[in-house]
Amino acid sequence: MKPAGSLVAALLSAIVSVIVPVLAAAGGVFALGACASCQSTVRVAAMPVVAAGSFDGVVADPNTHRLYMADRTAKGVDVVDISSTTPRFLATVNLGAMPSGLALAPDRNRLFAAVEGGKVAVIDTRSARVIDTIALNASSVDLLDYSPQTQRVYASTGDGGEVVTIDATTDRVRLRLAAKAPVGQPRYDPADGKLYVTTPKSDTLVQINPATGNITRTYVIPKCGPAGVAINPTRQLAMLACGSSVGLLNLQTGAQSVTRVVQGGDLVSYDAAADRFVLASPHGGSDSAVGVFSGSGEFIGSVAATPKAHAAAFDGAHGLVYAPGNEGLMSFAPADCAPPPDWLQFLGGLSIFGVPMLVLILIPVLYAKRMRLPRDPAKPTFRDLVKEDLEAERERMRALEDGILGLEP
Fold first, then answer.
1. In this structure, are 209 and 193 located in the same domain?
2. Residue 348 and residue 342: Cα distance in Å, rounded?
3. pLDDT tens-digit profile of 137-183?
4. What is the spatial distance between Cα 149 and Cα 42, in angstroms, rounded to a whole number?
5. Which domain holds residue 369?
6. What DSSP assignment string belongs to 120-167?
7. How far apart (Å, rounded) are the C-alpha atoms in residues 303 and 78?
């Protein structure tokens, strides 16, 4: 039988040979999590005009690869070429007044910009020129949305409590939809044909029939004060930018959930091609951020941002998110900071609890296995060796005696 020290060493060697690969796998999972930092993908393209500006709406045109930003400082819309991963500033379309929300109509080569004074400017995206101005007969106009299905632009009037519908084919006002409360972001849902509008002061999202102007449903989101909203029509899921949190709302069932992985926000958008929500969260100099969520509302990642970034846009061609920065145009790649797949996260979590259990199971198993192995022949003890020496000495003495006296007849 082997000494106890050898047995312990064998057991430890066997345990290590099993545990090390498991720990390596677990370490790999957490290494993936550690490197899953969106901040490491941030790039900033120096643009003096953008660095000096203050911004509201931001949209990207996937057809012309142009980024449009409502620049309130320059009183116009800044245009940036994003056809490559190195963006290039092109021009500022002068509006003569501060803009706020933007709505892109790529099928009509138009960009609509809400302008102070209760007007909407119509910009031809091919020539980057203002071709029309629509007066809404309202004291102000804030945020916009465009639906290619209805060929309508929806413009909120803020404290005016109305959403004005504009015919995008004629640039004429068609209907005035009363929300009966100060309104924020309007969003048309092509899945159910309804218009959804945030009403921040009443903590609600209202559903309006755009054909009749009737409010058909009201969703109460307690302590939200929603500003922006974006809709994934496939899932009938709305993401709301609340004051200090992010809300998810199932438009069919009314089920709600809240997360604070991003501390609230202003404007949020949904990119159907990428199946991503992008939310800007402007606060102070140290806690502003831009966050990215999957189309099902799962958090993917966020980066630190400037308080001037009230909105951000997704560039599907290059998988980048763009937002204004302190030194120019900021971009980052959310795909590079996506968390590991669920099965890999499960494996990593399981290994934390599984490894100690595996050790406890292996010790008796390996010990029992060791006990069943053939034992080595027992080694002679000290007493056995002394006895052997005495017997050998007696044989030697008898041989000597026989040699001296001779053998008896």
1. yes
2. 10
3. 889 999 999 999 999 999 999 999 999 999 999 999 999 999 989 99
4. 36
5. 1-36+341-378
6. EEEEETTTTEEEEEEE-SSS----EEEETTTTEEEEE-GGG-EEEEEE
7. 23
Which distant-in-sequence residues (6+ apart) come within 8 Å of 262 by Cβ?
246, 279, 281, 289, 291, 299, 302
- Residues 129-150 as b/e (b if ≥16 CB within 10 A, e otherwise) read ebeebbebebebbbbbbbbeeb
Q: Residues 92-135: pLDDT tens digits?
A: 999 999 999 999 999 999 999 999 999 999 999 999 999 999 99
User: DSSP states of 276-336 as a string?
Assistant: EEEEEE--STTT-EEEEEETTS-EEEEEE--TT----EEETTTTEEEEE-SSEEEEE-GGG
Residue 143 belongs to domain with CATH number = 2.130.10.10
Strand order in the sheet with 313-315: 43-46, 328-332, 320-324, 313-315
Q: Based on the domain organization, do 42 and 32 belong to the same domain?
A: no
Q: By three-state DSSP, how is residue 239 classified?
A: strand
Statement to judge: residues 171 and 107 lie in one domain: yes
Contacts of 136 (CB under 8 A, 6+ apart): 118, 119, 120, 155, 157, 164, 173
237: helix, coil or strand?
A: strand
Angle in degrees, 0-180, between the axes of helices 4-35 and 342-372, rounded to the nearest 10: 180
Query: Domain check: are 197 and 322 in the same one?
Result: yes
What total number of domains does the chain contain? 3
DSSP secondary structure letter of residue 205: E
For 350, residues 6+ apart whose C-beta sits below 8 A from its C-beta are none
Phi, then psi, of 10 in degrees rounded to 5: -65, -40
Among 58, 106, 40, 381, CA closest to 228: 58
Question: Are 140 and 20 members of one domain?
Answer: no
pLDDT tens, residue by residue, 268-277: 999 999 999 9
Question: How is residue 154 written in tokens?
Answer: 């929806």
Same domain, 54 and 175: yes
Looking at the fold, whether 252 and 192 belong to one and the same domain comes out as: yes
Is the Cβ–Cβ distance between 186 and 154 less than 8 Å?
Answer: yes
Q: Are 280 and 322 in contact (CB under 8 A)?
A: no
Average pLDDT, the chain: 86
